[in-house]
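DM from R.C. (forwarded with permission)

"hey, sorry to bug you on a friday — could you get me a structure for this? deadline for the figure draft is monday and I only need the backbone to look sensible"
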Amino acid sequence: MAGGNSKTAVPESRSWFWAVAVGVTLLKCLFINCYRSTDFEVHRNWLAITHSLPMSRWYYENTSIWTLDYPPLFAWFEKGLSKVAQHVDPNMLRVENLDYSSQSTILFQRLSVIFTDVLFILGVRECCRCVRNPKGNQDLLRNPSFVLAVLLLCNFGLLIVDHIHFQYNGFLFGFLFLSIARHMQSRHLQGALLFSILLNLKHIYLYLAPAYGVYLLRSFCWRQNHPDGSIRWLSFSPVRLLVLGFIVISVCCLSFGPFIAMGQLPQLLSRLFPFKRGLCHAYWAPNFWAFYNILDKVLTTLGFQLELLEAEHLPKASMTGGLVQEFQHVVLPSVSPLTTLVCSLLSILPALGSVWRRPRGSRGFLRCLVICALGSFMFGWHVHEKAVLLAILPLSILAVQNREDAGTFLLLATAGHYSLFPLIFSAAELPIKVLLMLSFTVFSFSALKHLHHAPLLHPLEVVYLTGLLPVAVACELIYPLSPWQQKLPFLPLLVTSVYCSVGVCHAFLRLYASLLRTPPKQKES
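My reply, with the result:
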C-alpha cells in the first residue's frame, strides 16, 4: 500500500491498478461460453465480408441480414482481426456460412474482445493519472484514482454488453478515454486526433462531437481570456483552427476517401444512417420517447374504450416486441428523424452555451460531454439501449471529484445499468448479471460515499432506486411464471423501460442543474 512519502506513491499506484486490470480480465474469461446475442453473428459476418470480398463490395454485400453498417475504419479493424482468424478456423470467414459458431470461432471472437480491451485499460490508466489524489493516504477508498479505476474497469454495463451480449465497446471507449486524458493534460491536438479516429470507427460517437467542437474552439483556438472568463477576441488563432481542421479532415479522408473515389459515398451513408429502422430500437430505450410511446398507447386504449377510435387502432406490442421496424403513433403526432434531431440539438444547446461562456477547464468539458451523450440518448432516433454507457462511463471521472456529480452518477448508473437487463434474457445468466450489478452498485455507493464523506442522494431518489428491487423481482422471477406471460410477453420490457426512464430523465435534469448553477468557486472533494 502507498506509504507516507511521495517516492513510493507512483509504483504502488501502478501495482493496484494492474492488479484490478488483471483481475477483471480473468473475470471476462469466465464468460466465454455464456449466452451470446445476434451481435456475435454480426461481427462474424463482418469478418467474412472484409476478408473474403474486395473493398468495393463491403457496403453492398447483403447475403446476411447483418450487413456492414459501421464506418470504414471499423471495417479495416475487422479485416485486421480476420488475418488472425484465418489461422484459427477459415470456415468462419466464408460469407455464405451464416450463423456459423464452431467452438474455435467462439473462442477467437471472445478472446478478440478481451485482447482489444487493452486499449481501454490504457485509456483508463491515463485518466486515473489525471485525477488529483490526497498525499500520504493509505485508505484506497479515499483515493479517487483507485475508485475511478474500479468504476471504469469493472463497469457492469460494459462487462455484460461486451463479454456476454458481445460487442467491442471497450476497444472504442479506449480511444475516448485516451482522448479525454489528452485534453485533461492540455494536449489538445492529440485529443482531437484520437477522437477523429474514434468517429471513423463508430459513428454513434457523433453524440459527443458538439462538446468537442465547442470546447476546442473556445479553449484551444482562443488562447487568452479576460479575468472574468470572457474571451479576448484578438487572441483567436486561425493557425490552431486550421491545424484542428486538418487533423479531422485528414482522418476522414483516409477513412472515407477510397469509397468516395469509387462513387460509393451514398451507399455507405445509407448503411451508416438507416432511418427506416424506426424511432425505437428493438424495445424502448429508457428515454423521453418511452414516455411518449406509453402515453400514445394509453390515449389509444382510452379512445377505444370511449368509442372515439376504431378497433383497428387498439395498440399492440409491436414497439416492444423486440423487432426493428417503423411504427406510427395513433393519437399523438408520429415522430420523424428530423424531429428527433431538432429535439436533441435543443437539449444540448444550453450546455454548449455554458461551456462557451465559462469553459471551467476539463471538468466543464466533461460535464458538457456527458450532457451531449445523455441528451442525444434522451431524444435521438432509433437509440440503442446500450448507448446510455456513453454518458455513464465519462461521468465516472466527475463522480470521483465532485459530490453532486457523484450523486448523479449513482442515479444514472443504477437506472441505466438495470435497463440493460433485458439484453441478457437467458435463465442461466440471471445469477451472473444479478451478482455483477449488485457488486458494482454496492461498491459504487460505498466507495463514493466514503470518498465524499456525505450522503449523495435525496430521500426520494433513494426511494426510486429502491423501487428497482420489486421491479426486478416482478420482471425477472414472477412474471415469467405467470399466465400473462403468453398473452403479454413483452410487458416486462415496457415496465423496465418506462421505470428506468424516470431515473435517466431525472439524472439528465440533475446534470443540467449542476452545470447551470455552478458558482465560480465550487467546493470539490
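R.C.: lifesaver. The chain has 22 helices and no strands.
me: no worries. Residues 1-13, 317-325, 520-525 have pLDDT under 50 and may be disordered.
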